[in-house]
Amino acid sequence: MRGMYIHSFSAYTGEPNVDVEWLKAEISRYTRVNFRRGNRFILLALLGACQCIHERSIEADTGVYLTTEHGNLGETAAVLDEIYTARSLPKPYGFINTMSGTAAFYLAQTLGSRGRNITVSSQHLSFERGLELLKLDFAGGAERSALIGGVDEASLSGENTGQENHRGWRMADGSGWFYVKPEREGACGSFIANRSFRDAPSCIDWIRKRGGPPLDLLSFGALVGEDEAAALKAALRPAAVFDYLRDGGYSGSATACGVGRFMGHFQGRSLLHINRDRRGNYAVLEVERY
Amino acid sequence: MGRKPFVTGKAMTCSLGDSLEGIVEAVRHQRLKLEQLPFTLSGLPYTRPYYLIRRNEKDQLENRSEAYFYEVLFSTVSRALDDAGVSDAEIRDMPLFFGSTSMDVPVFEGKHRRRSSSVSELFLQASNGYGKIAGAVMDRFGMEGNTYSFITACTSSSNAVLYAASMIEERCIERALVVGYDLYNNLGFYGFEGLKSIASSEYRPFDRARDGLILGEACGAVVLEGQNRKDSDFMCLGGANLCDTYSVTSHDEEGAAVAETMNRALMQAGIDPGEICAVKAHATGTENNDRTECAAMRLVFGHRIPPVTCVKPFIGHTVGACGVSELILLTESIKAGFIPATPGFREKDEALNLTPLTENRQTGEGIFMLNYFGFGGNCTTLILSNRGDGG
Questions:
Q1: Owning domain of residue B198
Q2: Total domains, chain B
Q3: pLDDT beneath 70: ranges in chain B
Q4: Does B34 touch chain A (CB under 8 A)?
Q5: Does A59 touch chain B (CB under 8 A)?
Q6: Which CATH number applies to A5-181?
Q7: Residue B1, domain member (yes or no)
Q8: Contact A183, A101 (CB under 8 A)
Q9: C-alpha distances in Å from residue B282, one per residue of A1, A182, A211, B276, B315
Q10: What is the complex's ipTM, to 2 decimals?
Q11: Which tens digit of pLDDT belongs to each residue from B162-176?
Q12: Residue A189 CB-half CA count within 13 A
């Protein structure tokens, strides 16, 4: 994956259900734009992205690639309640903001950017799939710079109960962003490779054959089991394992936040992040920090 | 230089049925199936029109369930795969590009009818994310490729087409399944009524008396491949997506961003505006959309705007599904020898100064522009060709 250079980054993880007024106050530290109609999902997207590009001028055609597992959970539930419980028509902006793509719009509007504007999801591999689309747009010349991020409200759905995920990770709101360009000059890191594998054997086969310099950090996505992680660690022999889910909490967009935390907090130069989805597809993301 | 992808398989389920031949004949003869639906939950004393899928008893709104949701989806995908004639091995390798506005909200609303829990509670407890539907298709058809679910409101499945085509062109993949799917849901019906966007009785895009959009439901599926299977297969020449940051609800009526999207698509396709032989307009029938779209076409084509067709009056505004469903409706009509007229158009709006086709126009080979716009300023243009020389 050539030419995916990270020029700035952010990794916001916060307690679930934090007051939206607090989010607005945080955002106001980075921009004068007032987001009166912003809901939690939109505000999370704005906060993470504003932190990413703070005091940095970005190009006018910068694309926005928002990846998410669940999108606008809270607003959608609220509007469903308006219809089914209050038995009224939804408020216009409430309804429009159930469409999760509006978060990417507000971001583009704040930046004054008229590039591509894509919101994409893929169970547990959303951030990796978003990077694939961005790489494609760089290769085809459709974009020359982009903000790509993962945003999710803390989800208490399915296996997740109380304030914890079924694996015991603390639930969190997450918003991790990267300003990416195909040029290296001025970059602080890069997405070196983003590989997809259809099953565990093909992923492990690649890992066994992997050459290159020793790996500084290894991290795993939420669905990689403990035994599997131990086997992969033994095969890769990293200097350390980075458990960003334990440290930062779990959200649907934990991968983006985890990579952002690596960029911000670690001395090591290289990170290999191994992720998988429910169908057993694997994605291996290699990140280098300059 | 990359290869251009072809639409080798297609299938659709909509208010006009689930047979492509039947749908095209209904379009040719303007046989529309429009119903009036009440706002029972909020007790409003009026109805609004809707284009519902009505194949049999199972399609009754009150009979619908999660199984129904997936039956419509799977049967449409199955027919598209059959139409392409792809082998089991080819299906296994396929990635899926999925686009929808409502995603699985109709499933939660259906479950709510059967349980006492609130629908928001069901939604928050059972939501497995936007990728769930795509995952279900992969499981059902034994597909092992990657999945990409696009959530860009009414441009969702047109963006799915755009990226599937780009991946084939860049030789990242050999072929792709692209699906646009939106079923009736109260969230959308009541939501658009809350915006006062729904027409009272008839769909009349670009008409002086237009009074809004009419929602419809559809599932459209296409197979895109790096090589054609039939001489008549349409080729995707290119496309573009841009964000009009004017407003979350509406586009800048000067049309600059929309025109820029069209121009970038033309440039990416490597053709001049004069080579476009017809435009499928997004044409929602709302004041803002129609004004913006006309202004943008004028910026791109000057005074030589090609024939314009508006297909929403046939199947309704199928929101996130419209990218694929309108692509199928247009290309199948062209294969049958005509560009569809626009039902409901009677009187020119002098402010727009544009008359869409009022009678079916005979056509053969050509290059066609398909426009799609959505909330959140999302603008997408696709350029398709069935010219034997590849466009």
A1: 6-225
A2: 2
A3: 1, 114-117, 126, 390-391
A4: no
A5: no
A6: 3.40.47.10
A7: no
A8: no
A9: 36, 34, 51, 16, 13
A10: 0.96
A11: 999 999 999 999 999
A12: 23
